[in-house]
Write a structure and sequence with these properties.
Layout (H helix, E strand, L loop, with lengths): L9 H8 L3 H9 L6 H14 L5 H7 L5 E6 L6 H14 L4 E6 L12 H4 L7 E4 L17 E4 L10 E4 L1 H14 L5 E5 L5 H14 L8 E4 L4 H13 L6 E4 L2 H13 L9 E3 L16 E3 L2 H17 L7 E4 L2 E3 L11
Helix pairs in contact: 1-2, 1-3, 5-11, 7-8, 9-10
Amino acid sequence: MKDPEPAPRIHDVAKLAGVSVATVSRVLSNPSIVAERTRRAVEKAVAETGYTVNVMARNLRQQQVGGVLALVPNLANPFFSAILAGIADALREEGLSLLVLDTRRADTGSATGGIPSYLTRSRADGLIVLDGSLDPALFSQPSCPPVVQACEWIDGLAGPRVLADNAAGARFAVEHLLGLGHRRIMHVTGPSGNTLSQSRAAGVAQALGPLGLAPVARMEGAFTLASGHAAAAALMAEPERPTAVFCDNDEMAIGLMAGLQARGLRVPEDVSIVGFDNIEMAAYANVPLTTVRQRRAHLGRRAAEMLLEHRAAPKLEEEELILPVELVIRRSTAPLPGA
């Protein structure tokens, strides 16, 4: 049986192109610094020899793992899918992989098998944190790789972060309801300690405050379909039933619609509802949902790009990128009858 041909080596490329091994390495890792004529000769030699980069060996030489870890609070929540896709696309262009850890299913305290065991340079080249409920002390160890926060953020954790304009989005949502004539507006919030909930509550106040109004009812939810469904009972129990509801995310808004419809109320004829996030199912709900669109894939990409920049040139000062949002009007909102 004939022995297989040995895999081409970088030395073979260098010999064929008539350059040094170091020049070949520069062309493969940073082609912009190499003269065009040399670069073309190396690229031609790579094509002719069939040489491919050994990513694992390169990472070992550079003392890199070759992957970035994203910490996500709930992988079952469809909101995070587009963000993770944006992160993965940006990392792939740099030859890096995306690793994902569901923080709600991991032990936060164990140093050997829990979250702390992942937060070292031996496990990841960088961290993108999407869970604002984590303890900032988790990231204080010298072995922790560079960190960028995205979407949610942790009070007390310094460093770069990429966020949607949550306050503006909530303000857009409530101003839309006000423009339709609604004044008895209920607010279904996220968890009270969550930074997103706090920012969106500020946006609600910005919209209602100039009219001397406040939400006629508030209910704390958990960003889940079930907590939105439970909010239907709270709405029905109000002495003066709210005519409109702003929910801090789409899952709660869709759950609320189902809960109201089960109780015989119509959306939007009896109650108008607005969500936040524009997840995929918002457009395909039983009543298509009016919501605030975040460019989630773009947010993920920008978070990955910021992490790569931070790894190359660490910054001591805070860096915060706020991305704009927009209102998407669908059929779940309508003018208040008689307004």
